[in-house]
């Protein structure tokens, strides 16, 4: 697996220029969407990112070791009795309940320290965040808290679906809430929200998937591709018409076939749902310069490609099949697997030999 750090940096610069004058942060949760936070986060810092978002406190601690001067927010909030840990790591919780706000406020008062934290308001996703009523009530007294909020934020539920009525409604609701917290920077937009226009960007945007070469909004082309995934052919074989391939005999060969078994399976993030059957063709890969379909089910460690249409002898044991790259994007692979690009990236296994290119001290 080859990860292009220059592409990630360039994608961030593109979004930063688009979002200006809003600040462009970077979401690096889930090990930088499966691509490796240790090389990715410093490459984003060198490109100019100064604010980062992760999901868990453990991720924030790892990120702090990499970027001592970064602003780091933990999206999943403040668990009970963890405020001292956040303060010691100089990490900012995203507070999404009255209990969290109260606990952080009391902790800051006890320390006589104004330690920054974000406040998350639920504007219609119903996943995390203060209710609108709680946010309005807090807005009348937030100056009396033991800390000054460093960010007021919410999250868009349907920004990737063009024209969805909830997206416009959430923006209006959030704008009303944000104005009740004068002097506090506001943030609503994820990758898709950043593309929706100036009205959605407020003071800070939080792109994730678009940085890593995925599609943010249906119909909007991704930025530079980031990941190339190559696997080895471990066996070339033949099978007569009428035989089946793989577990469950899910696909019966309609012609005498040549097959290439490759060293990748669902333990490596090639989803079982991406296999082929008599009813539907599954994932494609590139062998000998041409796209070939999987045949039969994906197993844990192996998958099989139909190479019948390639010149005989053009594929040998030890050759390389490309599952990402050469025109196959993470979203192409996702669609064939019945999922989304986010899940493809986050599911890439640990068995690949990873190679990072670019991302030098000059930022690419």
Automatic annotation (TrEMBL):
Its cofactor is pyridoxal 5'-phosphate. PROSITE patterns: ALANINE_RACEMASE. GO terms for molecular function: alanine racemase activity; pyridoxal phosphate binding. GO terms for biological process: D-alanine biosynthetic process. SUPFAM superfamilies: Alanine racemase C-terminal domain-like, PLP-binding barrel. The modification N6-(pyridoxal phosphate)lysine is found at residue 29. Transmembrane segments: none annotated. Keywords: Isomerase, Pyridoxal phosphate. Pathway: Amino-acid biosynthesis; D-alanine biosynthesis; D-alanine from L-alanine: step 1/1. The keyword Zinc does not apply. The active site is at residues 29, 247. Its EC number is 5.1.1.1. Substrate binds at residues 127, 300. GO terms for cellular component: cytosol. InterPro entries: Ala_racemase, Ala_racemase/Decarboxylase_C, Ala_racemase_C, Ala_racemase_N, Ala_racemase_pyridoxalP-BS, PLP-binding_barrel. It catalyses: L-alanine = D-alanine. Residues 226-357 form the Alanine racemase C-terminal domain. Pfam families: Ala_racemase_C, Ala_racemase_N. NCBIfam families: alr (TIGR00492). Catalyzes the interconversion of L-alanine and D-alanine. May also act on other amino acids. Belongs to the alanine racemase family. This is Alanine racemase. It comes from Xanthobacter dioxanivorans. The lineage of its organism: Bacteria, Pseudomonadati, Pseudomonadota, Alphaproteobacteria, Hyphomicrobiales. The gene is alr.
